[in-house]
Design brief:
Layout: H1 8-11, H2 26-42, E1 50-52, E2 68-71, E3 83-86, E4 99-100, E5 116-118, E6 134-137, E7 142-145, E8 156-157, E9 169-177, E10 180-189, E11 200-203, E12 206-208, E13 243-247, E14 260-265, E15 274-279, E16 282-288, E17 307-310, E18 315-318, E19 325-329, E20 334-338, E21 347-351, H3 373-381, E22 390-394, E23 397-399, E24 403-405, E25 414-417, E26 426-431, E27 435-437, E28 442-446, E29 449-454, E30 459-462, E31 466-469, E32 474-475, E33 481-486, E34 490-493, E35 497-499, E36 503-510, E37 514-517, E38 521-524, E39 529-538, E40 541-543, E41 548-550, E42 554-555, E43 558-561, E44 565-567, E45 594-595
Parallel strand pairs: 1-2, 5-6, 13-14, 21-22, 22-25, 23-26, 24-27, 25-28, 26-29, 27-30, 28-31, 29-32, 30-33, 31-34, 32-35, 33-36, 34-37, 35-38, 36-39, 37-40, 38-41, 39-42, 39-43, 40-44, 44-45
Antiparallel strand pairs: 2-3, 3-4, 6-7, 7-8, 9-10, 10-11, 11-12, 14-15, 15-16, 17-18, 19-20
């Protein structure tokens, strides 16, 4: 067989192997032409007798010499391009080596772009362009080429095929899906060719089968229109019946037909309570509204201030109650019962570790003091303070019960007091929130050391509650924070205090909570650590300027976020205790807090 020393794809390619534009070399063309002529004269090009995959070649092993088989998937080993095999003799399976049948793929040709475009009437402006210059007339879609002196070529359709069939338009109906209204495709109309068969409902992405996936075409309910003008008054209705009353029977001249008369005094043929109706000009009795006479209760009212009430079975006398009692229901009858005690002077309630909640709390000894702070709180809540004050004096020792105030005291203020000289003598060690005031309640606190192992804070004001700290305090280790104010709760500190234990936070404000501590001396002992930050304002306000901090701490100094504010009167960012920089100094950037 003749073997080309250079393929035609390489000879006639637009670019050479380095990617450079090339022209056809005359020598290459002569060689190619000579080789092609030799092949044609020697029968080098064969007729394909059969074709298929390489695995199918064996089917033709017994064909005669010069039988040609085209393997469309290569030679089964080195190439997957089409190759040819020729029987070299009549012997079975005597095939030639694989002969390439498919050349390598040439480079992609360049896209054609007209030299210029415009309306056909504007083509003449380019009559002076050289031969081969192209002009696309946008109004008829034809492409024209300059042909030298002979002018322009005939128009060649470019980029536009024959007009297609008219499209089909959907026939729509409004379908009801509960309160929703959805467009439904019920038919197609107006088109040419095959009519679409797809029916369904108009959804967000096209036609859908389920009405639930259709788009509701009804918008939101509009605003109520203005009131219309007042209509013309209707005609007067017929006069209704009237009621009259008086002593004795009604006179003939009183009222009109259909009117009624109530007799108040017996006489004239009628009794008290008789109801008369006038008809045909005449009054007549139609009934009586007076009930039967009740049973006599004479003798029940015997003492000034006594009352008669209906008991479970009959009327009974209720004697005047004792001073301070009020009428209440016992579930069966109305009875006198003790009301809220009204104070006439300030009162002190005592709490001691050796007390009892069965005591009155009025005496400072084991037989008179209460056992828990919460019992003292509840006792004060049952009083009408009447403008006086209650002090709950807590003795030395350790108390583990939580304290909760859920509403305001009646008529006065309550103070919870420990040892203001040595707060550590009265320890509130609580596995939960220490003292919580909510629901608009208020409490003054002083003279305690506080430590918590669970819950949110040692002192917590929430839901409008308010805590005033007016004396020395010592905050030991706390699970959540020493002080927390949230949901419009307020904690106001007006006395110096000590921090002797670690906590995630010392001051913690959320959701419009407020903590106030101005011009105090705060002593830190033992280098407490604050794992979140010393001051955390998460949508709350911490107002703590001109304080003096004695001692040191570790942890972040502050964290202001979610419109939280920490007000220091422009103190340095190292003003608060800690050894790490705070976050949240600009409400316009994350975390959107303000340290000022």
């Amino acid at each position: 067989m003749t073997i080309f020393t250079k393929l035609a794809a390489a000879i006639f390619a637009s670019f050479d192997s380095a990617g450079n534009p090339r022209k056809v070399d005359n020598g290459d063309t002569v060689v190619w032409g000579t080789e092609v002529e030799r092949l044609l004269s020697s029968g080098g090009f064969k007729t394909i007798n059969a074709a298929g995959p390489f695995s199918g070649r064996s089917t033709y092993n017994n064909q005669p010499k010069d039988f040609v088989y085209l393997s469309t998937d290569g030679d089964g080993a080195t190439t997957s391009l089409a190759v040819g095999f020729i029987k070299k003799s009549n012997a079975s399976g005597d095939w030639s080596v694989a002969v390439p049948w498919q050349g390598i793929q040439g480079p992609q040709g360049e896209n054609f772009t007209p030299d210029t475009t415009g309306l056909l009437a504007g083509r003449s402006a380019f009559d002076g362009e050289p031969e081969g210059f192209s002009y696309l007339a946008t109004d008829n879609g034809n492409l024209y080429f300059r042909q030298g002196g002979s002018g322009w070529s005939a128009g060649i359709p470019f980029g536009r095929g024959d007009q297609g069939d008219d499209g089909w338009a959907p026939v729509l109906a409004v379908a009801t899906d509960g309160t929703r209204r959805v467009l439904q495709v019920v038919d197609w109309t107006g088109g040419e060719g095959t009519k679409p068969t797809t029916l369904g409902y108009i959804g967000a992405t096209g036609i859908v089968a389920a009405i639930a996936n259709g788009v509701d075409i009804r918008g939101a309910t509009g605003s109520t229109g203005s009131t219309g003008s007042t209509g013309t008054p209707g005609t007067n209705g017929a006069d209704g019946a009237k009621w009259f009353s008086g002593s004795g029977a009604p006179s003939v001249g009183t009222g009109a037909n259909g009117d009624y008369y109530l007799q108040l005094v017996a006489g004239g043929g009628g009794a008290i309570g008789d109801v008369w109706l006038k008809a045909a000009g005449t009054w007549s009795i139609t009934g009586n509204i007076r009930g039967a006479t009740g049973a006599a209760i004479g003798g029940l009212l015997t003492t000034r201030g006594d009352m008669v009430v209906q008991g479970a079975s009959a009327a009974q006398r209720l004697a005047l109650g004792v001073s301070g009692y009020a009428l209440k229901s016992d579930g069966t009858d109305v009875v006198w019962a003790a009301s809220r005690e009204v104070l006439t002077a300030n009162r002190t309630l005592y709490v001691r570790p050796d007390g009892s909640n069965s005591n009155t709390g009025l005496v400072n000894n084991a037989g008179g003091a209460l056992l828990t702070i919460q019992k003292a709180i509840d006792t004060a809540a049952a009083l009408d303070l009447n403008g006086f004050a209650v002090t709950i004096q807590v003795g030395a020792g350790t108390f583990t019960g939580t304290v909760a105030i859920i509403k305001p005291f009646v008529g006065g203020a309550v103070t919870l007091q420990g040892d203001t000289t040595t707060p550590a003598n009265v320890l509130l060690s609580i596995a939960g929130t220490g003292i919580q005031v909510s629901g608009g309640g208020e409490l003054t606190v002083l003279g305690f050391k506080m430590a918590t192992s669970a819950g949110t804070a040692a002192l917590r004001a929430t839901n409008g509650g308010r805590i005033r700290v007016t004396g020395a305090m010592d905050y030991g280790a706390c699970a959540g924070a020493a002080m927390e104010a949230e949901n419009y709760g307020i904690i106001e500190v007006t006395a110096n205090y000590t921090i002797s234990g670690s906590a995630p936070r010392h001051w913690w404000c959320e959701a419009q909570g407020l903590i106030l501590c101005i011009g105090r001396t705060i002593t830190l002992t033992g280098t407490p650590a604050f794992s979140t930050a010393f001051a955390v304002a998460f949508g709350g306000f911490i107002n703590v300027p001109i304080n003096t901090f004695s001692g040191s701490a570790t942890g972040k100094r502050y964290d202001a976020s979610k419109n939280g504010t920490i007000q220091t009167n422009s103190a340095a960012t190292t003003y608060l205790p800690g050894d790490a920089a705070g976050t949240g100094t600009n409400p316009g950037t994350s975390p959107y807090g303000l340290y000022a």
